[in-house]
Amino acid sequence: PPRILTLEEPVLHLDHCIAFAVHGNPAPTLHWLHNGQVLRETEIIRMEFYQQGEVSEGCLLFNKPTHYNNGNYTIVATNQLGSANQTIKGHFLEKPFPGRIFSLSLEFLGSWKTPKFVCLDSKAFSFQVSIAVGLAAFACVLLVVLFIMINKYGRRSKFGMKG
Predict the structure, then answer these.
(1) Which residues 6+ apart lie within 8 Å of 73 measured at CB?
(2) What's the structural domain count of the chain?
(3) In whole angstroms, what is the distance from residue 143 CA to residue 141 CA?
(4) Which residues cross the membrane (predicted)?
(5) What is the CATH number of the domain that holds 32?
(6) Is 43 helix (H, G, I), strand (E, B) or coil?
(7) H helix or E strand, kind and range, residue 44
């Protein structure tokens, strides 16, 4: 029956690779599971291996994996005499923005402005939004009052001069 000789954590070469070696006679068929579900090969994920006698060696290759590819990977080797499986945890990227709201603020470094992401919880974010809306409303009211005053008092020319 098949026996899994090695199963290694993902390593970055040209692509990320989960290396494996499987022994079996007759040669086992290999397939992979991702978090318990059958893993389909795509342009991003593919398996390459070669058979040398009774040993199959190869890699499960990932082309630019993301946080969606994190999880448990199980290799399943099956032939007429039985099957074997082994699982390894694959971690490629952290999940971006985990359950938080992000706001773009500007941090001043000397004379350069550098964008910096600041993590805010929802209460602080809603408070900042209400402050911004209040300031914008105040500015609009001030501009309307100034416009009315300029139209009302600005039409009279002093000293009889026409402007």
Answers:
(1) 18, 32, 33, 34, 39, 60, 87, 88, 89, 90
(2) 2
(3) 5
(4) 125-150
(5) 2.60.40.10
(6) coil
(7) none
The parent domain of residue 127 ranges over 122-155
54 is a domain residue:
yes
- Checking DSSP bridges between strand 37-38 and strand 29-34, what pairing results, if any? antiparallel
Per-residue pLDDT tens listing for the chain (163 residues): 999 999 999 888 888 999 999 999 898 999 999 999 999 988 889 999 988 888 999 999 999 888 888 999 999 999 999 999 999 999 888 887 765 544 444 344 444 444 555 555 667 778 888 899 999 999 999 999 999 888 887 766 666 666 5
Q: What angle is formed at CA 140 by the lines to CA 134 and CA 146, rounded to 5 degrees? A: 135
